[in-house]
Each structure stands twice: as structure tokens, then as C-alpha cells.
Amino acid sequence: MSSEYGFDRFHLGEERASRITLKSSTPKYSMKVNVDRCIGCMSCEVSCKKEHNLPVGPRRMRVIQVGPYFVKKGQLKTVYLPMNCFHCDDAACVKACPTGSMQKRADGIVFNDTNTCIGCKSCIHACPFGSPQFNDATGKVTKCDYCKHRVDEGLLPACVTLCSTDALWFGNINRISTIDREKTARKLTEHLFGFVTPHSVMGTSGVQDTDNPVKVG
Fold it and tell me: Which of 72, 74, 69, 45 is nearest to 167 (CA)?
């Protein structure tokens, strides 16, 4: 069946990879959440607060619970969504900051320099996602910065490291995009044609659904 539908032609190696990823673009970091794998254990929240010594209140990583709600045949379902900063390309928090303490790096990481932050909360009001939060202990704003002190040393953010189900992926945005599309293609293949396509055919990443596929760099 694979030859009939031409799937043998999808194994293009480096040529295929060069078409999907944008190797000439500036490398930027991104985090993807696999909602299907998140069980709401809050490990990411706990590890984040411990890593950054945060008091009760502000949370750089927040796990949002949706439900429980009824699905078919009266069954209940609950969805957990880990939410951190989206590190927007045109970050509203950066533009709203009057002192320039809120900054965006070339690798896409948006961070707050607490040395120049005056705690005016302008960034908090500007962000539509509630990422910047006020830290009463310091009188300044805190927000997710992908644990840039860890990333700069080649390590993963604390939340990714301790995620118990590998629901969080972190790394180069082009690699994440490629992996995500490969997984979607495999699922569509199974749905449309009734068979599971081997990773060696549909993708060059060799990523399993249970893996945390992305490394820093």
C-alpha cells in the first residue's frame, strides 16, 4: 500500500529536511505543549518556583485546568494546559516597559532585567496572556524567560527537565515545527489509510510520541 500511495517517495533525507526547516533564519527557541500527555501533576509549576525561588503568589509557569466536563456517553473529561510566556515576536510587554527592563534577545527569549525594573506593572497590564506577574517579595515583575541562565549553558528549562510525562518540548523553533508536522502526517496517514507509517518513512527526526524530542541548540 505504501508504494501505491507513493509514500516511498517521502523518504528524502537531507533534501526533505532543507525544505521544511529554515536553516538561514535566526535560530529561535520555542516551547510546545503536548496537551494529550499533560496529567496536571504540577511538576512544572513546582520546579519553576524552586528554580527561581518564587514566594507564594507569582507563577512563571501556570497549569490551567479545563473541566471536568461531560463528553459522549456521560463520561467526564478534564484537560490540563501548562501556560508560560509565549515570547511574542512583537512583545507588548517590551513596548510598554518605560525603563527598558523588559527586553527580547536575538534568540527570541523575552526577559525582565530586575536591576532596572521599577515595578510599575505596565508590562502586566499590556500582556494579554498574564505572563508577567508581580513579586511582592522583591517589588518587581517576574516572568518566564525559559530559564535563560540554564539555556545559555546548554540545559533545558527546569519545567521541561522535571515534566513527568514529557508533555513539554523545548528547543529550536524550526525543529519543533518539523517534528510536529511529522507527527501530524503520521496520524493522518493512519486515519486515512488504516496503517501506521514507520518513522523512517514519514520523517527524518526519528522521534517517538513518548520522547521529549527537542534539545537545546
Answer: 45
